[in-house]
Write a structure and sequence with these properties.
It is built from 18 helices and 22 strands. The protein is α/β, with parallel strands linked by helices. The chain folds into 5 domains: 1-43; 44-142, PAS domain (Beta-Lactamase); 238-395, Histidine kinase-like ATPase, C-terminal domain (Heat Shock Protein 90), CATH 3.30.565.10; 408-530, 3-Layer(aba) Sandwich (Rossmann fold); 553-671, 3-Layer(aba) Sandwich (Rossmann fold), CATH 3.40.50.2300. The strands form 4 sheets. Strands 6, 7, 8, 9, 10, 11 and 12 form a 7-stranded mixed sheet that branches. Helix 7 runs parallel beside helix 8. The longest helix has 50 residues, at 144-193.
């Protein structure tokens, strides 16, 4: 019995000894772990401390004591409250309640041993076994250098924004100051070209006008590039007739192309909508840049602009291709051709001129519209510049029978680009185009070919390929400058004519007219086949779409005497009555006394400016319930802010100086579509 008890006691003693040994080992390991943990924490560059609900320190690492120059024995167990910077509005430390709500991060500007420093704190909850918050552990990192960098960046940003505002103001001022005298130079040059000049005088006047237009184009490029760089470029959302837009740009560039003995044609796929939603001005600008470049760098052949639709996951995409037979772009230059101040070849830059900004601006504009732009080599030579933009269709392509369904049209021209472009136009309208260099021997029997289009050449090579001796309708294709030869062409036996570049609508209309009225009547001025585009002829006479009789009663507010003389003469030559004043206040007073059909007002005038005058006139109309007078701004400010101010003041439109007669006429047609005071203009 005693022996069993002794054995039990020895076993219990052994177990106790083992437990003590294990406890000692565990305590040693715990102590070593604590030493390692403390060493790790002390080695941290961040300041770490714990505090209880009374803000008394319960623990801190070496970095903390060094940061605030504290003795551990005099800090642990005591409240900790460092000095906060006088300009700091933040509380000293986050509270327990803040930590419970998840507010665990804050920055403080504190006095330390190194002076005033920014410390970024992160708080962590320390809880007991029941999950109750008993302490807060804070980890602080010195972010003074980062704060200094942030302050420097903020100051740099503020300075950059101030510089951008100053640049915008400078550009607006310079735009006005440069465009105002340029309005006089170009306007008077254009008026001079409408007079009877000797050949030598006309050469000089044309040189002045062309140089002025080149300078104006450069100013526009610089302004657009500056707006893009400063991020102030905005897009408008309007209804855009893309078919008419492309045809209009082609007509604008047509005289330049024909003067080089090259052709410019357009081709629109059947599914391209009649109207899309987009920025008409910016789309026109990109088209003008790409098509203008193609004309500039093409010496033989021509330029063809093709419109098509490309499906996409998020909607329709409009694709525009500008194909030329020009000098082309070397493969090594294609990746950088859209960069600023880069041209395909420095020798070409010297030969053709240009700022090197047009393609860079086009790229930025297309990307701003959400599209892409690129370049590909032509099938034989030349280049294909293309761009895509996402579109929203407003009016879809027309449905029903195609206007040239089943028609076979022969195209006779020395220019392959013209032949191919017209074939595509005819095919897109349901017909078949026959691409011919010369007519087949003998007479063409009716039924095999329905009509023939014969090219009269270009301004540099104006002779037609030959008079028609056919039993089928035959039309001659002429340049705008060749209209003076229409009587001679009619005497040669042509049934009608088309003015190049040829619009699709005009092509179908005039072909169908000649097919239905073959050889009766001959190119009469009343027939649709004799209608012509509204671009002004090169001869020194007023544009044909302008009024030859008394038209509108117009009030002109312009303080610059040269600009006033120019605009007054432009309007009077087109049959309008003009009364001019020099201030906005005088314009308001004039409208109080008598009625006018239109107010053209400068923006920058002494006293009451044009915008203030527009507001006053709109307020006067509302008060008196009087008819609304159209108001159009005459502005040399090409920035969007100036245009927006015009719209906000109640204006109906604006003309940018120097005033282009074609834009002036377009404005009249927009404001007075019924033709009141103006003859009706038939669109080609």
């Amino acid at each position: 019995m005693l022996t069993r008890q002794a054995d039990d006691m020895r076993a219990a003693a052994q177990r106790l000894e083992n437990s003590l040994r294990n406890a000692a080992a565990a305590n040693t390991r715990l102590h070593q772990s604590e030493i390692r943990y403390k060493g790790l924490v002390d080695a941290q560059g961040d300041a770490i401390f714990r505090r209880d609900a009374s803000s008394r320190l319960t623990y801190a690492n070496e970095a903390f004591f060094k940061l605030f120059d504290l003795e551990p024995s005099r800090a642990i167990g005591y409240p900790f409250a460092p000095e906060l910077h006088p300009e700091s509005r933040a509380p000293l430390f986050g509270s327990f309640g803040d930590l419970a709500r998840g507010q665990t991060h804050y920055d403080q500007h504190l006095r330390t041993t190194a002076g005033w420093r920014w410390i970024s704190w992160k708080d962590y909850a320390v809880r007991d076994g029941q999950g109750r918050l008993i302490e807060v552990q804070s980890v602080g990192r010195d972010i003074t250098e980062r704060k200094a960098l942030e302050d420097a960046l903020t100051e740099a940003r503020d300075n950059a924004e101030a510089a951008s505002r100053a640049k915008s103001g400078f550009l607006a001022t310079m735009s006005h100051e440069i465009r105002t005298p340029m309005n006089g130079v170009l306007g008077m040059g254009r008026l001079l070209l409408e007079t009877d000049l000797k050949p030598e005088q006309r050469t000089y006047a044309e040189a002045i006008t062309q140089s002025g237009e080149a300078l104006l184009s450069l100013i526009g490029d610089i302004l657009d590039f500056s707006k893009i760089e400063s991020g102030t470029l905005t897009l408008d959302e309007d209804e855009v007739d893309v078919r008419g837009l492309v045809a209009g740009v082609a007509e604008l560039l047509g005289p330049r192309a024909h003067a080089k003995n090259i052709e410019i044609t357009t081709m629109v796929a059947r599914d391209v909508p009649q109207a899309i939603r987009g920025d008409h001005v910016r789309l026109r600008q990109v088209l003008t840049n790409l098509m203008g470049n193609a004309v500039k760098f093409t010496e033989t052949g021509g330029v063809c602009v093709a419109l098509s639709m490309a499906g996409a996951k998020n909607g329709d995409v409009l694709k525009v291709e500008v194909r030329d037979t020009g000098v082309g772009v070397p493969p090594q230059k294609r990746h950088e051709i859209f960069q600023e101040f880069v041209q395909a070849d420095s020798s070409h830059a010297r030969k053709f001129g240009g700022s090197g900004l047009g393609l860079a601006i086009s790229k930025r504009l297309v990307e701003t519209m959400g599209g892409q732009i690129g370049i590909e080599p032509g099938p034989e030579h030349g280049s294909i510049f293309w761009f895509t933009v996402p579109t929203i269709t407003i009016r879809p392509a027309g449905e029903g029978a195609l206007p040239l369904e089943g028609k076979r049209i022969a195209i006779l021209s020395r220019n392959r680009m013209l032949r191919e472009g017209l074939c595509l136009q005819i095919e897109s309208q349901g017909g078949e185009g026959l691409n011919l260099l010369q007519l087949p021997a003998g007479r063409i029997e009716a039924g095999k070919i329905d009509a023939v289009l014969i090219d009269s050449g270009t301004d540099s090579a104006p002779d037609p390929l030959g008079p028609p001796d056919l039993s089928i309708p035959t039309l001659v294709m002429v340049t705008p400058a060749a209209r003076s030869r229409l009587k001679d062409l009619s005497a040669m036996g042509f049934d009608g004519y088309l003015v190049k570049p040829i619009r699709e609508a005009s092509l179908a209309e005039q072909l169908n007219y000649c097919l239905s009225m073959h050889r009766a009547p001959k190119m009469s001025a009343e027939s649709p086949a004799a209608s012509m585009p509204s671009d002004p002829p090169a001869a020194p006479s007023p544009p044909p779409t302008m009024a030859a009789r008394t038209g509108l009663k117009i009030l002109l507010a312009e303080d610059n005497p040269v600009n006033a003389l120019l605009i007054r003469e432009l309007l009077r030559r087109r049959g309008h009555q003009v009364r001019d004043v020099t201030t906005g206040g005088a314009a308001v007073a004039a409208l109080e006394k008598e009625s006018f059909d239109l107010l053209l007002t400068d923006i920058h005038m002494p006293g009451m400016d044009g915008i203030e005058a527009a507001r006053a006139i709109r307020a006067m109309e509302a008060k008196n319930a009087s008819p609304r007078v159209p108001i159009v701004a005459l502005t040399a400010d090409a920035l969007e802010t100036g245009r927006r101010a015009c719209r906000d003041a109640g204006m109906d439109g604006f003309l940018t100086k120097p005033v282009d007669p074609a834009e002036l006429e377009e404005m009249f047609q927009t404001l007075f579509p019924s033709g009141e005071g103006l003859p009706h203009t038939v669109a080609a």
